[in-house]
Write a structure and sequence with these properties.
Length: about 475
């Protein structure tokens, strides 16, 4: 009898060891725009490991975030829900306990789940993670050990979240240091010596994410599981500089997205995807049913067919992030539409208003001296445009607002209609008593948060799971 029991236990262990479900490494960076990587054409920043990963995987040219703000972006990704539907649409809010995460679904299905690095969403156990850890400065120092310490009889999902490339910038020997005079300054920013110095620190941290991407891939290959592991590299919002992070221009809401793994085709795709789609994608790849609460769609068809279309329209929102904001964006075809509920206010965040950042101070001083282009100076004036419309193909940095162009009127009406449908179907609304500014315009980041009403709160948006328009026809 004892012999039979041992045989049975051996067979069970063998079956567990033979679990062929795929693993996942989800590498989410902090504050990086696509244009900051050599994979997307930046010739000054070294990201060779990401180029190698991209060469054996798929690079997305049109991946968009639901918001360009740290914690609400992460809460949106982990739930597959728009920020105003999560109950955590503003900076520094934890995900409410009644919201379901895809990590919980994977954990329930037998996945071993890890979180290491920046969290900014809430209690790890409540989010569905078996283990959690953090480290500094990069947040990535423990990742390889996490992979080595995992149980070998379970597939795993690793949420590896770097602190890079968030301010303040810290240097070490894991990435090259850049000469400020040799860098290109993104055209929406003012080209000043302090700005260049900050960019050099920023790009050091961007390259450090590349270093750890290489370390992770080496470990996956060492363990012989690289071919059965999906590796995903993305960001939570755009670079932490004026007119980028928090903004609904592409410098804020567009994310790098590189995916490699089992049966993923190689190349680049123009297919439109949203960060709200990540959760449905992970669950489908793992063979786990998507919960009804999720509003995103799976992008699995694109992984094998670069011409596949899973959505024709993507939506993004801008809420409180140190300063009051309520803006919404619609992205479809060649067009980006931005609607501003409070045009009487400055359109700013800490990364574009606080003089503790040299790039910010230089930009506002240059505005006062009349040294900026109209696009660079836009955030320094009020009132702001109530509506903006851009052709992103002909105007990749969104410098020319066509909202008042007679030739674009039909497009403007179509975008307004899409936004209205999305707001109605997902329960979005403008709060009557919003969270107030945490500080004065140019003060250092400080002060207590006096939280007000949230967008969608009066319509009980946290109970709504309607996805809003996904195609132009519905």
């Amino acid at each position: 009898m004892r012999f039979l029991c041992l045989v049975a236990l051996s067979l069970v262990a063998s079956c567990l060891d033979a679990d062929t479900r795929p693993n996942f490494v989800f590498f989410i960076t902090d504050d990086i725009s696509p244009d900051d990587l050599s994979v997307y054409g930046n010739t000054h920043v070294h990201t060779p490991h990401l180029e190698q990963i991209a060469a054996r995987g798929l690079v997305f040219e049109n991946a968009y975030l639901t918001i360009s703000s740290c914690s609400p972006s992460r809460c949106s990704i982990i739930t597959g829900r728009y920020p105003h539907n999560t109950g955590a649409p503003e900076l520094h809010q934890s995900l409410p306990a009644d919201q379901h995460t895809f990590v919980q679904s994977l954990q329930k299905a037998g996945y071993y789940t890890m979180l290491s690095g920046k969290n900014h969403m809430g209690n790890p156990k409540a989010l569905g993670f078996d283990v959690s850890s953090d480290s500094h400065p990069a947040g990535a120092e423990k990742w390889v050990q996490n992979l080595r310490d995992r149980p070998r009889d379970q597939p795993f999902f690793a949420w590896f979240a770097s602190h890079d490339a968030h301010r303040d910038f810290a240097f070490n020997d894991k990435a090259p240091q850049y000469e400020p005079s040799e860098l290109d300054v993104p055209p929406m920013m003012f080209d000043g010596p302090g700005t260049r110095q900050e960019l050099a620190g920023f790009y050091h941290e961007v390259s450090r994410t590349d270093h750890y991407a290489g370390e992770l891939m080496k470990e996956l290959q060492r363990q012989g599981i690289a071919d059965n592991t999906y590796f995903v590299y993305c960001s939570d919002n755009g670079r932490p500089f004026p007119r980028c992070k928090t903004y609904l221009f592409e410098s804020g809401i567009k994310t790098p997205l590189i995916i490699s793994g089992p049966n993923v085709t190689t190349g680049r795709t123009d297919s439109l995807v949203s960060s709200i789609d990540f959760s449905a994608t992970f669950l489908e790849l793992a063979g786990v049913e998507k919960p009804e609460s999720e509003q995103g769609v799976s992008i699995v068809p694109v992984l094998s067919d670069t011409s596949a279309v899973v959505r024709e329209v993507a939506f993004s929102e801008r809420n409180w992030h140190v300063f009051q904001n309520h803006q919404r964006a619609v992205r479809t075809g060649d067009w980006l539409y931005i609607w501003n509920a409070w045009p009487e206010r400055y359109s700013v965040s800490g990364e574009s208003a606080s003089f503790q950042f040299t790039a910010v101070k230089e930009l506002w001083e240059a505005a006062e001296a009349g040294k900026l282009t109209d696009a660079q100076a836009l955030l320094t004036i009020k009132p702001q445009p109530a509506e903006m419309l851009f052709n992103v193909r002909s105007d990749p940095h969104q410098f020319h607002n066509l909202a008042n162009s007679p030739e674009s009127f039909s497009t403007l009406q179509r975008m307004r209609g899409l936004l209205h449908r999305w707001q109605e179907q997902t329960g979005d609304s403008v709060p009557e008593n919003p969270t107030v500014d945490r500080q004065g315009l140019h003060e250092s980041l400080s002060g207590k948060i006096q939280r007000g009403d949230l967008p969608g709160q009066d319509r009980e948006a946290t109970k709504i799971s309607a996805p809003g328009p996904i195609t132009i026809s519905r």
